[in-house]
Amino acid sequence: MNILTNRIEYNVGDASHQGYLAYDDEITEARPGILIVHEWWGLNEYIVRRAHMLAELGYVALALDMYGGGRTAADPGEAGELMNGVLNDMDSGSAALRVGYELLLDQAGVDRTRTAAIGYCFGGAMVLHMARIGLPLSAVASFHGALGSFHKADPGSIQSSILVCHGAADSMVSMDDLDGFRQEMDAAQADYEVLLLDGAKHGFSNPQADVNAEKYGIDLGYQLQADQQSWAAMQALFNKVFQ
Asked: What does pTM read for this prediction?
C-alpha cells in the first residue's frame, strides 16, 4: 500500500476551492471514487483522516471544500457563518456539489460507473442533497447529518442507495426530523436505510467532539462503538453497490 495525497485547486464559478485527494498508488485497475463533505468546521484534519481511511480501503477519496479558499472555522460562530453562507444559497451550494462530482470523475483511476459520497453533520445534509437532486452516485452515507430537505425529490428520481447513521441521543437533529426524513424517502420511493445508534450524540464519529463540547458548551459527544458501527455499515453498503 502506498497512499498518495494531493491538494487540488478547482473553481466553482469564479471562486477558488481547495480539495484533498487520497488514493493507493499501488492499485492499477479502475476503482470506485468517494466524495467526502466536511462538517461545519470546514475541510480540516478530521476530514483528511477520513480521506486516508477510504484510500486504505482501496478507493479514490476526494474531500470537497464547500467554503472556498480552503477556509476552516476557528469557533462555532465562524463555523455557523460559513455553513449558513452555503445553506442560504443552495443554488450555489448545488453547483458546488455538481462541480465536486465532476471533479471526482476526472481523477485518474476512478471508475466513473461506481461513485459514492459521504458527509458529516453539515456534510451529511449535503450528500443527502446530492441524492435528492438525482446525481448518479451509487450510494450516499450521512453521519450525524442534518436531515431537512432543500429539494423535494420526485418518486423514483433518487438514484443513490442511502445510509443515514443517526445518534439516538442527538439533541440537534431530533427523532421528529428522522421521522420526517423516513416519510420523505418513502414518498420518493428511495432505497434507504437508517442506522439508529443507541446513546450516541451529535458528532459521535469525531474524537474531537468531546473537546468541542467542553470548550464551547455544545451537546456533542464521541462514541467509539457508534463510530465503528457506522463505518462498518458504510463499508457494507459500498460492498453491496460496487459489486
From this structure: 0.96
Q: How does residue 152 score in pLDDT terms, banded at 50, 70 and 90?
A: confident
Rounded Cα distance between 173 and 220, Å, is 11
3-state helix, strand, coil in the chain (%, to 5): 35, 25, 35
Candidate from 16-25, 74-83, 144-153, 158-167 with smallest mean pLDDT: 144-153
Percent of the chain with pLDDT over 90: 98
Q: Which three cell numbers stand for residue 160?
A: 443513490
Write down the domain spans for the chain: 3-241
Cβ-Cβ contacts under 8 Å for 120 (sequence gap 6 or more): 37, 38, 39, 46, 47, 50, 143, 144, 145, 205, 206
The answer to whether 109 and 31 have CB atoms below 8 angstroms apart is yes
* Assigned CATH topology for domain 3-241: Rossmann fold (3.40.50)
Closest CA to 19 of 27, 31, 11: 11
Q: Which stretches of 67-215 are assigned E, i.e. beta strand?
A: 110-120, 139-143, 161-167, 192-197
